[in-house]
C-alpha cells in the first residue's frame, strides 16, 4: 500500500478507497478526466426543486471510478485543492450560464462543495469573481458548502472575512455535514452563513433510533431561530422523509428523490419527478401495494437495483420454481433465453437507477420472444412475470422500509405484464401448448 505524503493512506474510514497520488490528480486534471454529477435538493413537501449539489467525479482508465473521498484529502494536503476547486467552480458556473434565460432553471442554485482551505485563502473571493465574470453569471446562483475541518478553523479571522466578501457577491454559504464537527451554539451565532446541512447519519437513524427525532427537531428550531435554513441530507426512504418533514425541516436531498447524475439527465429527471403520482402525499409505511395501473414507474428505484444486483439469480430461480411444479423449466432455460434474460436484468438494473424504463420495456419484448421460441406458452410467460413480481416485491418488503420502492417494483412488473398481454390480445395463442395439441388432435 502506498503511503507517501502525497498519497492518501488507507486509515480508518478510508478502507477500500483507491490510493491516489498528487501527480495522478494533476494528470487527471490535464487529461480532463474529472466531471461533475448533480444531485437535486428539493422541498420536503416535494413541490419544488431548490437546487442541485455539485459532486466531483473521476473515471480513470486505470483506477476506475475514484470517489471524491479518495481525492479531496490528497488534494488538500498537496495544495492541488485550489486548482481543482477553481475547476469545479468554473464548470458549475458554465452550467449556470447554460440555464440562463430558461425560466424553469433560472432559480435553481448550484451548491458547490469547497474545502475549508479555500475559505482560508484571501485570494479566493477574487478568483471566484473572475470565474463568475468569465462565465457571465452572478453569485446569486451559487451556494458554497463547507465542512468543518481539522486542517483549518473556519472561524479564523481570514475565513470570516472571506465569507463576508463572498456573501457580498450574492453567494450563499452553508455548513455541510452539520452535527459531526465541533460547532457550538455561540460559534454558530457569529458565523456568517445562510444554512446548515444536517449530516446524513441523523437521517439514516431517524426512524430507528428514538433519540434522533427530538435532536433533529431541536436543530431545525435552532436553525430557524438563527435565521438560517436546514437541509436534511441522505433521505432514502419515505419514512425518513416523513420524519424529517415532521421535525420542521423543509428542504431535503437524497436517493429517495434522485442519485447524483450528469447535468444532461436533470431535465428528464425533473419532468418525471413532477409527473409522479404520489407527489403530494407521503404514503403510510404499512400500506399494501395494490394492482392498479400498467404504467412504467417514472423515478429511479435504487433499492430494487440493489436487490437485482445481489439476488437476481435467486429471485429468478424462485419465480421459476413457483410456476413449475410439474411443467418444463427448460422453456425458460435455453441459451438464447438466458442471454435475453441477462440483457433484461441489465436493463432493469440500469433503469431502476436512472428512472428511465424505456430500455426495460424494449428488452422485455425480446425476452418474451425468446421464451416463446423455446416453447413457453403465453400463459406460462405471464405466470412467470407475475410470480417474479410477487417474489421481488416480497424480497423488497423484507429488506427495506421504502414503500415507494415496493410500489415502483410492483408497477414495473405489472406494466410489463400488461405489455405482454396487449401484444398477445390479437392472437389465439393463449391456450397452453399441451392443451392446444390435444385440441388439434381432437
Ligand atoms: P457531501 O458534500 O456531504 O455530499 C453528499 C454525499 O452523500 C455525496 O457523496 C452523495 O453522493 C452522497 N449521498 C447523497 N444522497 C445520499 C443518500 O440518500 N444516501 C447515501 N448513502 N449517500 C447519499 P460523494 O459524491 O461520494 O461525495 C462525498 C464527499 O466528497 C462530499 O460529501 C463532499 O464532502 C466531498 N466532495 C464531493 N465533491 C467535492 C468537490 O467538488 N470539492 C470538495 N472540496 N469536496 C467534494
Ligand atoms: Mg456537500
Ligand atoms: Mg454532507
What does this structure look like?
The protein has about 450 residues and is an alpha/beta fold. It folds into two domains: about 5-285, EAL domain (TIM Barrel); about 300-435. Helices cover about 50% and strands about 10% of the residues. It has 18 helices and nine strands. Strands 1-2-4-5-6-7-8-9 form an eight-stranded mixed beta barrel, surrounded by four helices. The radius of gyration is 26 Å and the shape is elongated. It starts with about 20 loop residues before the first helix and ends with a helix. About 40% of the residues are buried. The model is unreliable at about 1-15, about 280-295 and about 425-440 (pLDDT under 50). Bound molecules: ligand C2E and magnesium ion (2 copies). Ligand C2E binds near residues 72, 113, 115, 145 and 260.
Question: Main attributes?
Answer:
442 residues; alpha/beta; TIM Barrel; eight-stranded mixed beta barrel; 18 helices; 12% strand; elongated; disordered C terminus; binds ligand C2E; binds magnesium ion
Amino acid at each position: 500500500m502506498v503511503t507517501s505524503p502525497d498519497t492518501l493512506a488507507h486509515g480508518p474510514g478510508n478502507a477500500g478507497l483507491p490510493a491516489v497520488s498528487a501527480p495522478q490528480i494533476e494528470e487527471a486534471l490535464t487529461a480532463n478526466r474529472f466531471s461533475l454529477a448533480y444531485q437535486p435538493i428539493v422541498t420536503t413537501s416535494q413541490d419544488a426543486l431548490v437546487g442541485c449539489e455539485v459532486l466531483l467525479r473521476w473515471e480513470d482508465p486505470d483506477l476506475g471510478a475514484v470517489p471524491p473521498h479518495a481525492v479531496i484529502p490528497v488534494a488538500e494536503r498537496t495544495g492541488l485543492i485550489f486548482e481543482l476547486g477553481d475547476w469545479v467552480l468554473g464548470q458549475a458556473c458554465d452550467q449556470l450560464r447554460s440555464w440562463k434565460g430558461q425560466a424553469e432553471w433560472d432559480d435553481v442554485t448550484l451548491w458547490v462543495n469547497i474545502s475549508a482551505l479555500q475559505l482560508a485563502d484571501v485570494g479566493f473571493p477574487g478568483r471566484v469573481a473572475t470565474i463568475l465574470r468569465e462565465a457571465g453569471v452572478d453569485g446569486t446562483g451559487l451556494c458554497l458548502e463547507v465542512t468543518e475541518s481539522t486542517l483549518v478553523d473556519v472561524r479564523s479571522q481570514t475565513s470570516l472575512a472571506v465569507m463576508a466578501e463572498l456573501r457580498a457577491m450574492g453567494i450563499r454559504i452553508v455548513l455541510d455535514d452539520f452535527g459531526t464537527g465541533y460547532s457550538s451554539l455561540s460559534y454558530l451565532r457569529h458565523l456568517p452563513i445562510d444554512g446548515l446541512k444536517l449530516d446524513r447519519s441523523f437521517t439514516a437513524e431517524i426512524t430507528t433510533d428514538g433519540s434522533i427525532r427530538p435532536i433533529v427537531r431541536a436543530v431545525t428550531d435552532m436553525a430557524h431561530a438563527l435565521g438560517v435554513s436546514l437541509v436534511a441530507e441522505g433521505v432514502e426512504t419515505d419514512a425518513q422523509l416523513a420524519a424529517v418533514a415532521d421535525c420542521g425541516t423543509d428542504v431535503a436531498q437524497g436517493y429517495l428523490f434522485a442519485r447524483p447524475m450528469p447535468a444532461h439527465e436533470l431535465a428528464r429527471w425533473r419532468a418525471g419527478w413532477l409527473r409522479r403520482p404520489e407527489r403530494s402525499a407521503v404514503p403510510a409505511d404499512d400500506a399494501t401495494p395494490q394492482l392498479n395501473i400498467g404504467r412504467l414507474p417514472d423515478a429511479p428505484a435504487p433499492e430494487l437495483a440493489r436487490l437485482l444486483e445481489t439476488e437476481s439469480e435467486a429471485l429468478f430461480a424462485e419465480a421459476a420454481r413457483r410456476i413449475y411444479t410439474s411443467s418444463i423449466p427448460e422453456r425458460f432455460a435455453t441459451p438464447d433465453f438466458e442471454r435475453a434474460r441477462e440483457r433484461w436484468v441489465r436493463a432493469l438494473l440500469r433503469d431502476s437507477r436512472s428512472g428511465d424504463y424505456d430500455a426495460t420495456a424494449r428488452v422485455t419484448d425480446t425476452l418474451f420472444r425468446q421464451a416463446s421460441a423455446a416453447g413457453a406458452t403465453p400463459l406460462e410467460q405471464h405466470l412467470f412475470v407475475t410470480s417474479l413480481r410477487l417474489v421481488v416485491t416480497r424480497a423488497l418488503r423484507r429488506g427495506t422500509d421504502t414503500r415507494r420502492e415496493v410500489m415502483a417494483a410492483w408497477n414495473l412488473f405489472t406494466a410489463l405484464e400488461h405489455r405482454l398481454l396487449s401484444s398477445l390480445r390479437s392472437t389465439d395463442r393463449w391456450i397452453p401448448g399441451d392443451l392446444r395439441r390435444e385440441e388439434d388432435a381432437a
